[in-house]
Amino acid sequence: MLRIFHNTSYGFIKHWKLAAILTAAFIGAGLVTFAITGGVNYSIEFTGGTLMQVQFKEAPDVAVVRSSLDKAGITGSEIQQYGGPLEYTIRARDEKQVEAQAAGAEGISKQIQAALDQQFGKGNVNIVRTEAVGPKVGSELRSGAATAMLIASLFTLVYLAIRFDWRFGTAAVLATAHDILVTFAFIKLFHIEVSLTVVAAILTLLGYSANDTIIIFDRVRENLRKPHKGLTLSTLLDKSINETLPRSIMTHATTLAATLALLGLAGEVIRPFALVMAFGVFIATFSSIYVAGPILLWIESKYPRTDDGATAMAARAGNAAAATTKGGRGAERLAAR
User: Cα 30–98–83 angle (5° rounding)?
Assistant: First the structure.
């Protein structure tokens, strides 16, 4: 049986300051981009409007395509190459056009098709697909997506509060919140369009990240039940991470392989989902080690337990030499919770 990263003893937690600087810089860059350019780029599903995927017989000049649409009264449309040089997407999201879309779902798409046929000749432009969403539907989808993320976060919080001591649960929840912030910064920095598939990726990331942290914290609780004289909580965290490392590597490798396959082979529609998920695999691994662990250490040092384990857990968090037998029994009591 193949065994990788077996009996390792890497010191992960000691690098938490560098990790904190890197993640703060990444989130800061995302916030600056938000401040300069506004919010995320929502898809037609959320804003309302018309999206058409068209295929030309010959590679067109984008400026000519845009001018033909402007002449037809479809102003401010977004035209992007979609895969090869012959395929493009046209997004009509002007406020007046979105209102018109609510009155007649096919009106704008017919205007776009007529304008392209007039410019390039009938039969030279093939309409591959058309998506039309009214402003009311787009608004409902956006609020529904936000509600789904909020409910998923609350259920995760309740589960962690029941399964762990509140200190462990708080650290896990803050690590998951970190993942969401970093993911939104990634989406903004790389101009990823937020569609329902991207929302699905974010919801998947919520569970994936929480699961990764729970695996490590479960091992921490198991190690707390064992006698480890002279070991700080920081050392126990490193020990637990190293013990779960083979499982984590195999899980992340298989998940990443699947997302990379989607990224390369599944096409443009699924690509944003795969891109966010591939990033999520890395960020979930990062946060379970360099965010959840250091936060737990900080909480243990600031809010020591008032029971018999307070002395020992405070010692584990920062001063192993002060650990006593009485405190060790308190740590075992903590693990039993």
Answer: 60
> In which region does residue 76 sit, left (phi positive, over 0), alpha (psi from -120 to 50) or beta (all else)?
left
Decide: helix, strand or coil at residue 291: coil
Same domain, 173 and 299: yes
**φ and ψ at 304, to 5 degrees?**
-65, 155
Q: Report the predicted TM-score, pTM, of the whole model to 2 decimal places.
A: 0.73
Name the phi and psi angles at 190, rounded to 5: -100, 10
- Which CATH number is 186's domain given? 1.20.1640.10
Domain that holds residue 234: 13-37+139-303
219 and 288 together in one domain? yes
pLDDT, tens digit, 9 for 90 and up, residues 185-229: 999 999 888 888 888 888 888 888 888 888 888 888 888 777 766
Nearest to residue 263, comparing CAs of 218, 194, 201?
201
Residues in the chain: 337
Rg for the chain (alpha carbons), in Å?
Answer: 26
Calculate ∠ Cα 27-166-163, nearest 5°.
105
Render 193-232 in DSSP notation, one character per residue: -B-HHHHHHHHHHHHHHHHHHHHHHHHHHHHHTS--TT--
